Structure formats: C-alpha cells, structure tokens
Amino acid sequence: MFIVLLGAPGSGKGTVGKILAENLKLAHISTGDLFRENLKNETELGKEAKAYMDKGELVPDEITVKMLAKRMEESDTANGAILDGFPRTKNQAVVLDKLLEERGNKVDMALNIDVPFDEIVERIANRRSCRGCSAIYNVVFNPPKVEGKCDECGGELYQREDQKPEVVQNRLEVYKNSSAELINYYDAKHVLRTEKAGDKAGRTSYDVAEKIEKEIKNGWN
Ligand code: ADP
Questions:
Q1: Which of 30, 48, 61, 88 to mutate to test ligand 1, by most ligand atoms within 8 A of the CB atom?
Q2: Cβ distance 108 to 212 under 8 Å?
Q3: Which of 28, 82, 91, 141 has the fewest CB atoms within 10 Å, i.e. the most exposed one?
Q4: What's residue 221's pLDDT?
C-alpha cells in the first residue's frame, strides 16, 4: 500500500505519517527529512538543496526525484510506504506513478490533511525539532518533558531556519501555488481522501491517523 500525504507545512503530515507507518508496517519516507539528513552529512545533494530550503522554496524536481527514487529502492518499501512531502508538484506525481507502475504498485490513497492557514502559522511558530532524531514538538501543546531536550533521544531541540515566520509565509505561498493541481490530479484518479483537522475542526493529527488506519484495515478501495 502506498499512501501520499498532502497538506500544508504544519498540517500534521509528519505525525500522521509516523503513526500510520508504524501501525500499518509501511516505510515512512519524508523528503524533508531526507534533505535535512543530507544537509547534516554535508553531502553534495545537501549542498545543492540548502539554498532552496533556507528560503522555503521547493528544491528542483531533478534533485528531489533522484533522491526519492533511490530511497524507494530500499527493502523496507517492499510492503509499501507513506510518502510525506512527496509529491509536491504535478511532475513529481507523474514520476511517482511511473516509478510505482514499474514495480507493479500504485498510489492507493492521497490523504489531504486540511488545516486552516491561520492555525498553521501559529503551530509552526511553536514548533521545535530535534537535531538528533528529527522528532517534532509543539512548545504549547506537546512540550518535551525537559525544556529544550528531546524525550526520545535526549537531542537538542531547535527552531529550524524554515520555521521562522518570514520563511513560513513563503512556504505557505509555495504550497498554495502547487497544492490545487495535486489535489485535482489525485481526485481524478479517485484516490483522494480529505480530512479536516485542527482546533476549529476539533480534530488532532491522532484523530485523523486513527480514522484512516481503521478505514484501511476495513479495506479501503
Ligand atoms: P514542510 O513542513 O514544509 O512540509 P518539509 O520538512 O517536508 O517541510 O520540507 C522542508 C523543505 O524541503 C521544503 O521547504 C523544500 O525546500 C524541501 N522539500 C521537501 N520535499 C520536497 C519536494 N517533494 N520537492 C521539492 N522540495 C522539497
């Protein structure tokens, strides 16, 4: 089973993806995390991606697609994967379809997590990430047990460059400009599933994950 997560930065893709991957025994592939790993290890790819990421812009497809294709060759994807942050353009969606078709698979669900933008801006401002294991915290709603320290690995928590307000605004603009065509793309393929989340909807990422997990276990599609 291959599930694509759509939704703005800060919509909870990471949290939903992690839960679904664990409970459905699927690989969790986050292109944002893959890029950050490359940055940390100072690889060529990381150096190429850095300028785009710091500004909140999309890394060019050529670089992104190569990285994703390589990750998809790993054996943990045999059973399927949750793709978190990929595709982000229609071109990436087309490439993904081809890649999956070659191995006899397809995108089974495109889960669009729909959170109002005003809630997202606040969420991202409160977000902290772990330098060690990339775990994410919210200093208001989901704070670590010890301030500034990751509960899972003890790593240092920090505010990512692209979580700063000016960059967040740009990431949301980028999202607005690219999301409609992706949503239409998957809607036309009858695999689109939209779930409202956030305070106004009264639904957390955990609620969304639980509902989707149940549906899949009951035989989605
Ligand atoms: P977000 O919280 O915006 O979903 P991510 O951690 O997924 O953040 O991504 C961080 C950055 O990595 C993006 O702003 C972008 O520069 C780059 N990136 C991640 N995935 C892609 C992709 N599929 N295509 C192009 N750039 C990407």
A1: 88
A2: no
A3: 141
A4: 63
Give per-residue burial for 22-39: e unless 16+ CB within 10 Å, then b.
Answer: eebebbbbbbbbbbbebb
* 48-51 contact pairs (CB < 8 A, 24+): none
Please choose from 120, 162, 166, 182 the residue to mutate so as to test ligand 1's pocket, defined by most ligand atoms within 8 A of CB: 162
The whole-angstrom separation of Cα 35 and Cα 161 is: 14
* pLDDT at residue 10 in the model: 87
Q: What is the pLDDT of residues 152-177, one digit of tens each?
A: 999 999 998 888 888 888 889 889 98
Residues 141-152: tens digit of each pLDDT: 889 999 999 999
Three-state secondary structure call for residue 123: helix
Q: How far is the CA of 149 from the centre of ligand 1 (A)?
A: 24
pLDDT given for residue 164 in this prediction: 83
Residue 140's pLDDT band (cuts 50, 70, 90): confident
- What is the CB < 6 Å shell around ligand 1? 9-10, 31-32, 35, 52-53, 56-59, 64, 85-86, 88, 92, 162, 171
Name the phi and psi angles at 26, rounded to 5: -120, 155
